[in-house]
Amino acid sequence: MNILVVDDDKEIVESISIFLRGEGYGVFKAYDGIDALDVLSQNEIHLMILDIMMPRLDGIKTLMNLRESRNIPVILLSAKSEDADKILGLAAGADDYVTKPFNPSELMARVKSQLRRYTSLGSIEKQNGEIVISGLCVNTECKTVKVDGEEVRLTPLEYKILELLVRNRGKVFSAEEIYTGVWNEQAAICDNTIAVHVRHIREKIEINPKEPKYLKVVWGIGYKID
Questions:
Q1: Is the pLDDT score of 104 beyond 70?
Q2: CA 172 from centre of chain
Q3: DSSP letter, residue 21
Q4: How many CB atoms lie within 10 A of CB 60?
């Protein structure tokens, strides 16, 4: 398994790399988002540890760029003062986060957990851009959705919400996180807005919207794709 460590602090990169190699992982290094995307384009990377605050291209923008084509796990590194960026990162598709200063043993445990989840799902995104979950197929290149082989027409916003959820299968997103991830701005009063869009998506992709197979509500918390 190859892991890409991205941080503008070279000492942190070196420290994490030592622990990763000790666990038997291959390690690639980058010191800003532009370098990271270059490494990703030329190598088979299975997980990325990504700092939020970096020069040239920060972690959030790097993550958003990555999620246009790749579904590998991403663990964010964040300072305690970066809670807003942490929420943005999770909404944009990060799988986990670790707050600096961090315990190396905790970071390694999170790395192993994310890699287990990634490999158990079989890297659900295919090379042709399709994400297939049972009878639901989302093509992230063509921006199309099919259910049991039949194409379903979604509005652009409905598609963005569905894509965010299928890229992060099993993860629960609050209405605020969906709003931030899809509209790419800080959430206002959005619970009802998201609920309406979710209802419309269900009506289009579910055989029985009242007993959904794919898009589910976790009451009091948010929404997820199962």
A1: yes
A2: 11
A3: H
A4: 23
In the numeric block, which tokens belong to residue 104? Answer: 């190396």
pLDDT in tens, 140-186: 888 899 998 889 999 988 999 999 998 888 888 888 888 887 876 55
Cβ burial, residue 20 (10 Å; 0-12/13-18/19+):
buried
Count: domains in the chain: 2
User: Is 180 in the same domain as 102?
Assistant: no
Query: From CA 222, how far away is CA 216, in angstroms rounded?
Result: 9
Whole-prediction pTM value?
0.56
Question: Looking at 9-13, 83-87, 114-118, 166-170, which range is the least confident one?
Answer: 83-87
Closest to 178 (Cα-Cα) out of 121, 114, 93: 93
Question: Which domain covers residue 57, as residue numbers?
Answer: 2-120
Q: Which tokens in the block code for residue 72?
A: 């590998």
Quick one: which H or E segment has residue 28? strand 26-30
86 and 146 fall within a common domain = no
Do residues 171 and 221 make contact, with C-beta atoms less than 8 angstroms apart? no
Tokens (6 digits) for 57: 């291209």
